[in-house]
Amino acid sequence: MTVELGVELVDFVEDTDGIRARLRHRDGTEHTVHAKYLIGADGSKSHVRKALGVGFDGRTYAEDWLIVDAKLDSSSLDHIEFLCDPRRPAPHMPAPGGRQRWEFMLHPGESAEEMERPEKVRELLSPWGSPDDMEVERTAVYRFHARTVERFQKGRVFLAGDAAHITPPFAGQGLVAGLRDAMNLCWKLAWVLRGHAGPGVLESYDQERRPHAKAMIDLARLLGRIIMPTSRAQALATGVLMRGLRLIPPARSYLEELKIKPQNQFDRGLFVERRRRGLRRPSAQPKTQLTRGAMFPQGWIQRGSDGCWSDDALGDGLTLVGFGIDPEEHLGQTAAALSAVGGTCIQLCHRGQRIHRREGDHVWEDISGAFVPGTAPVGWAAVVRPDRTILHDGPVTEAARLVRETLAVLGAEDSDSGRSKEIGPRAAASRASAATEVHR
Ligand SMILES: Cc1cc2nc3c(=O)[nH]c(=O)nc-3n(C[C@H](O)[C@H](O)[C@H](O)COP(=O)(O)OP(=O)(O)OC[C@H]3O[C@@H](n4cnc5c(N)ncnc54)[C@H](O)[C@@H]3O)c2cc1C
What we know:
Blueprint: E1 8-15, E2 18-24, E3 30-35, E4 38-40, H1 47-52, E5 56-72, E6 81-83, E7 90-95, E8 99-105, H2 112-115, H3 118-125, E9 134-149, E10 153-154, E11 157-159, E12 165-166, H4 174-194, H5 203-227, H6 232-246, H7 249-256, E13 300-303, E14 306-309, H8 310-314, E15 319-323, H9 334-340, E16 344-349, E17 363-366, E18 380-384, E19 390-395, H10 399-410, E20 413-414, E21 419-420, H11 425-434, E22 436-439
Parallel strand pairs: 4-11, 15-16, 16-17
Antiparallel strand pairs: 1-2, 2-3, 3-22, 5-8, 5-9, 6-7, 7-8, 9-12, 10-11, 13-14, 13-17, 15-18, 18-19, 20-21
Helix pairs in contact: 4-5, 9-10
This protein binds flavin-adenine dinucleotide.
């Protein structure tokens, strides 16, 4: 992989087998790159989005906001506070490294220059202590937008991050949404380029990410309405409502633990859909907490004296997880097809379950109790994608079928013969090297 900093994408065209992109260096020289795919992660004013001509629906707010980041000598804030004062609404929150952030709404007629003056910033911060004890590191005036692109993919071009969605900051999910995009898209592209999945899987990027990004923006807009009261009466009503909700324990935990945030769970996308009720669903099917298209849980696990978060044990590929039982023992010949796409197996078992450790085995104890039997009963298995989404699940005795169906969904299996396509390292390497060629 080559990272070239200080290079501007000037324009691009899609041809039959890829994208031809013209790049400009700082010294004005240009060169052309031919690539299989292009990701436009070029921010809210995205040149790529405009060139694609896709809509960017939503609204831009009328108000400007001043953002102030400051480092404090002693910073003990451990929660976000919203000052719903109609005279000057102001969210205030902790930030990493002993920093805090304030956001102050500007009134009509107040300019950015005026609000960013050090004396004005000192005046605004004074209710929180002596400004002499605070080191103001950044001030910026900006305007909120709440927009989502009408589709995240057009042909061989994908949009990610602020190029695809911009949100008011009230849910604190601007950058996070972009990270989710990257997590969702990058492994799919890598798998397609290596020949481990068919190009059809790339359509699931839009199916999975767009609804979630939009739901997060809708939440930020709702929070914004609560946070930015336009009158004293509205501020009073909001205060009374919030105080009331805090007296009801379930409502309090709902608000404080931000359970109001939309779950990162897909209705449609790249996972094996459950059969509809009445169609071959065994009546005695055990209860599991696993939802296909949702995130696999995370917990602290241990192997011998090594402990880690389960996400780290799952690795970067496709993982077949067995609950209390080794799924590999039930794979038979399908084990080769799984390992051909870089898939691995792990077993999660009860804490304290007797383990006869072998060198290099994949049996982990569930130290935090996140998995067995809370998530799934002993004897269950799940196929987890590289981005930790649950792709399939079922009885571990049917592990071979789970893997075959998974590979079929990924387009990596010849469903007629039931055998894996030729996807060995040599074929993968030649596909990957064909992915990018550079013309200077
Ligand atoms: C004042 C402010 C405060 C914020 N605070 C938070 C926060 O606390 N938490 C949070 O989660 N989010 C926050 N956000 C939102 C967050 O900054 C963005 O969601 C995030 O930076 C988006 O990342 P991105 O990579 O998609 O876009 P950007 O960060 O905008 O990066 C896009 C990059 O593409 C480059 N580029 C553009 N055009 C071209 C081209 N033609 N060729 C080559 N390169 C190009 C740009 O130079 C830039 O480096 C804040 C935003 C603002 C404005």
